[in-house]
Specification:
about 40% helix, UDP-Glc/GDP-Man, NAD, six-stranded parallel beta sheet, about 15% strand, about 500 residues, disordered C terminus, Rossmann fold, alpha/beta, UDP-Glc/GDP-Man_DH_N, 2 domains, UDP-glucose 6-dehydrogenase, 17 helices, binds nicotinamide-adenine-dinucleotide, binds uridine-5'-diphosphate-glucose
Length: about 500
C-alpha cells in the first residue's frame, strides 16, 4: 500500500453493541461509503433488519432508519462482505475466558482468531484490518501473523488498532462527539498510510486534532488503561462511601468537594452499588492477567484490588439489607428496581443487580424485579441461560417474579432496592408505594438517586450508599452490617 487508500467499502465483523452503532454512525457521516455489518448470528442480523433493533440505545433507531438500505447493510453473508471490503473492522466479543489457561482472567481471543482466519481465507485484494475489539497488548501481532501465514499470493494486509471508547446509553453521542479517536499502526510508510486512510473516515466529523496516532501497542494498552482508570475511580469513591457511612460524612459532598480540584475533576465519582457492564471487570482482569504474564505481580495485585473493592461493595450492600430487615429476608418479598447495569440501556452483562439477587436468593428471599427496558426472560434467569442457579442448584424461577409495573412489583414488599439509576424511579408515587408495602417499609438506595428526606417523611426507613441516615430512623449506621459496630476513629 504505497499511499493512503480511499475507502469505499467497509465490512464490520460483529453486529453487537460496538459494531452496530459504530457502523451506523460511519454510514451516516460517509454516504459515499458502503458499510456492511455481518455476524454469525442470524437472529441478531434479523433484528438489525427489523423495526426492533437488538440494542436499545438513544438516537440509534433514527440513524439506522436513515441509512439502512442506502449505504448501511446488515447480513450473515460474511464472506461476501469481506471479499468486497477495502477495510475490515473486527468488532467481535472478547469475553473473559471461562476455561483453561487464564480462566476467569484472560480474555478469550477465539472469536478474534476465527475472524482473522476468515479474512485471510476470503481476501483476494489488499485490506486494512482494524482491531476495534478490546484486546491484550500485542494481539495485533497475532492477527498479522495469522493473516500473513494464510493469505493468497500478492494480497497485503495492514493491521491497525482502533479501540472504541463509547459507553452504553450514550453511544451515539460518544460516537458523534468523541473525546478522541485513537489509531495505532506500524511505524512504517505502509502503516502510516493505513492510519491516514482510517483517519480520513473519522475526519469527516471529528476534528483532526482529536485523531491521535500512536504505535500499535500503545493504542492497545491505552484502551485497557482507560477502562482501568475509570473503574479505579469508581472503586475509589466506593471505598470512600464505606467510610462515609461509618462516620456521617456524605459521599456526594465528598465527591463534589474533591471533584472541584481541577486535577481530579468532577466526572465518574458517583458512588454506587458497584460498577457493572461487559467491559470494566473484563478489561481490568485482562490487565491483571497481562501483568502476571509479564512477571509484574505487584502491578497485577494493584489493579486486582479495583475488582475486589467492587465485589466488597455489592456484598456490603446486601449484608446491610439483611441486617436492616431484622437479620432475615427468608420468604420476604424484596423488590429490585432496575436490572440493567446502568440507565438508558437494556444490557445486563455483569449488572450488579445479578449479584445482589443471587445473594438475596442465597438468603431465601422472594425477589420481584422491575426494569423499564430489560427483556423479562433475562431477568427471570438472572442473565444465565439456565434456571438453575450456580453450585447450589437452586431453581431460581421459584424465587423470582418479573413485573411490568413498579407499583405491582412493590406491593406487599418489605423493601425496595434501587440497583439502576433509571430517571423514572425518581418520579414514582412513593406515597402510593409506601401504603402498599409491608411495614416497616424499607428503601435501599444503591445509586444515590432518590430524595431521602422526602422518603423518610413519608415513613420509609431509608439507607443509601455513602450516607448515614440513621438518625432519621433506626439509629443504626449503614456500616454496622460488618458485624461488630464500626469503631469511632480516634482523632
Ligand atoms: N459494549 C461496549 O460498550 C463496548 C465499548 C467499547 C469496546 N467494546 C469491546 O468491543 C468488542 C465487542 O463488544 P460488544 O459489546 O459489541 O460485543 P457483542 O457480544 O455485543 O457483539 C459481538 C458480536 O460478534 C459476533 N461474532 C463473534 N465472532 C464472530 C465471527 N467470527 N464472525 C462474525 N461474527 C462474530 C457475535 O455473534 C456478536 O453478535 C469487545 O471486545 C468489547 O470489549 C465494547
Ligand atoms: O460515577 C460512576 C460512573 C459509572 N458507574 C457505573 O460504572 C459502570 C460502567 O459505566 P459506564 O462506563 O458509563 O458504561 P460502559 O458502557 O461500561 O462504558 C465503559 O466501558 C466501555 C467498554 O470498554 C468503554 O468504551 C467506555 O469508555 C467506558 O466508560 C456502570 O455500572 C455504571 O453505573 C458508577 O458506579 N459511578
Amino acid at each position: 500500500m504505497s499511499e493512503a487508500v480511499k475507502i469505499k467499502n467497509i465490512c464490520c465483523i460483529g453486529a453487537g453493541y460496538v459494531g452496530g452503532p459504530t457502523c451506523a454512525v460511519i454510514a451516516l457521516k460517509c454516504p459515499d461509503i458502503t458499510v456492511k455489518v455481518v455476524d454469525l448470528s442470524k437472529e441478531r442480523i434479523d433484528q438489525w433488519n427489523s423495526n426492533n433493533l437488538p440494542i436499545f440505545e438513544p438516537g440509534l433507531d433514527d440513524i439506522v432508519k436513515e441509512c439502512r438500505g442506502r449505504n448501511l447493510f446488515f447480513s450473515t453473508n460474511i464472506d461476501a462482505a469481506i471479499h468486497e471490503a477495502d477495510l475490515v473492522f473486527i468488532c467481535v466479543n472478547t469475553p473473559t475466558k471461562s476455561y483453561g489457561l487464564g480462566k476467569s482472567r484472560a480474555p478469550d481471543l477465539k472469536y478474534i482468531e476465527s475472524a482473522a482466519r476468515r479474512i485471510a481465507d476470503i481476501s483476494t485484494s489488499n485490506k486494512i484490518v482494524v482491531e476495534k475489539s478490546t484486546v491484550p497488548v500485542k494481539a495485533a501481532e497475532s492477527i498479522m501473523e495469522i493473516l500473513n501465514s494464510n493469505h493468497k499470493p500478492g494480497v497485503q494486509f495492514q493491521v491497525l488498532s482502533n479501540p472504541e471508547f463509547l459507553a452504553e446509553g450514550t453511544a451515539i453521542n460518544d460516537l458523534l462527539n468523541p473525546d478522541r479517536v485513537l489509531i495505532g499502526g506500524e511505524e512504517t510508510p505502509e502503516g502510516r498510510n493505513a492510519i491516514e486512510s482510517l483517519s480520513n473516515i473519522y475526519s469527516r466529523w471529528v476534528a483532526r486534532q482529536k485523531i491521535v496516532a500512536t504505535n500499535t501497542w500503545s493504542s492497545e494498552l491505552s484502551k485497557l488503561a482507560a477502562n482501568a482508570f475509570l473503574a479505579q475511580r469508581i472503586s475509589s469513591i466506593n471505598s470512600m462511601s464505606a467510610i462515609c457511612e461509618a462516620t456521617g460524612a456524605d459521599v456526594a459532598e465528598v465527591a463534589h468537594a474533591i471533584g472541584l480540584d481541577s486535577r481530579i475533576g468532577p466526572k465518574f465519582l458517583v458512588a454506587s452499588v458497584g460498577f457493572g457492564g461487559s467491559c470494566f471487570q473484563k478489561d481490568v482482569l485482562n490487565l491483571v492477567y497481562l501483568s502476571e504474564c509479564l512477571n509484574l505481580p505487584q502491578v497485577a495485585a494493584y489493579w486486582n484490588q479495583v475488582i475486589e473493592m467492587n465485589e466488597y461493595q455489592k456484598r456490603r450492600f446486601v449484608d446491610n439489607i439483611v441486617h436492616a430487615l431484622f437479620n432475615t429476608v427468608c420468604d420476604k418479598k424484596i423488590t429490585i428496581f432496575g436490572f440493567a447495569f446502568k440507565k438508558d440501556t437494556a444490557d445486563t452483562r455483569e449488572s450488579p443487580s445479578i449479584t445482589i439477587c443471587k445473594y438475596l436468593i442465597d438468603e431465601c428471599a422472594q425477589i420481584s424485579i422491575y426494569d423499564p427496558q430489560v427483556d423479562p426472560e433475562q431477568m427471570l434467569h438472572l442473565n444465565t441461560h439456565t434456571h438453575k442457579y450456580t453450585h447450589t442448584g437452586i431453581d431460581i424461577e421459584k424465587y423470582i417474579k418479573i413485573y411490568k409495573s413498579p407499583y405491582e412489583a412493590a406491593k406487599k414488599a418489605h423493601a425496595i432496592v434501587i440497583c439502576t439509576e433509571w430517571d423514572e424511579f425518581k418520579t414514582l408515587d412513593y406515597e402510593r408505594i409506601y401504603s402498599s408495602m409491608c411495614q416497616p417499609a424499607h428503601i435501599f438506595d444503591g445509586r444515590q438517586l432518590l430524595d431521602h428526606k422526602y422518603l423518610i417523611d413519608i415513613g420509609f426507613r431509608v439507607e443509601a450508599i455513602g450516607k448515614n441516615l440513621s438518625k432519621s430512623h433506626t439509629g443504626k449506621p449503614f456500616s454496622s452490617v460488618e458485624g461488630p459496630k464500626a469503631k469511632r476513629p480516634k482523632w
